[in-house]
Amino acid sequence: METRIVTRHPDPGKEGANISKAIYDQLKESILAVLQNVESLPEQELPQKVAEYLEEEISGDLNWYTETVKLDLLARELIEYEPGKPTHLREKTFF
Question: How far is CA 79 from the centre of its chain?
């Protein structure tokens, strides 16, 4: 039986999604690795960079999974939006 988790959403009024833990773990690792290697990344480039980083294909809509895990990581404060336009993402810095 597949293990599933419910993700978080940065907007407290919205619910996260119920997804496969294996897919969540793969995408979490990929997103954090991609953001670790750059100062910031335009938000619209994230799915492409994640796809390049993944070692194996994800079954299903990679853009949807990337968005779902990105929102979870924002809610957990592991990543953040960089101020300004267009929207950029970066690893959360702790001081």
Answer: 8
Q: Are 65 and 75 in contact (CB under 8 A)?
A: no
d(CA 33, CA 3): 23
Domains of the chain are 4-91 (1.10.10)
Q: Is the pLDDT of residue 93 over 90?
A: no
Q: What is the pTM of this model?
A: 0.92
Question: For residue 19, what are the β-bridge partners?
Answer: 5
One-letter amino acid at 26 equals Q
Tell me how far apart the alpha carbons of residues 7 and 75 are, in angstroms, rounded to a whole number. Answer: 9
Q: Is 35 exposed, middle or buried (0-12, 13-18, 19+ CB in 10 A)?
A: buried
Q: What is the DSSP letter of 15?
A: -
Helices (H), the chain: 21-36, 46-53, 62-75
pLDDT for residue 95 is more than 60: no
pLDDT at 19: 97
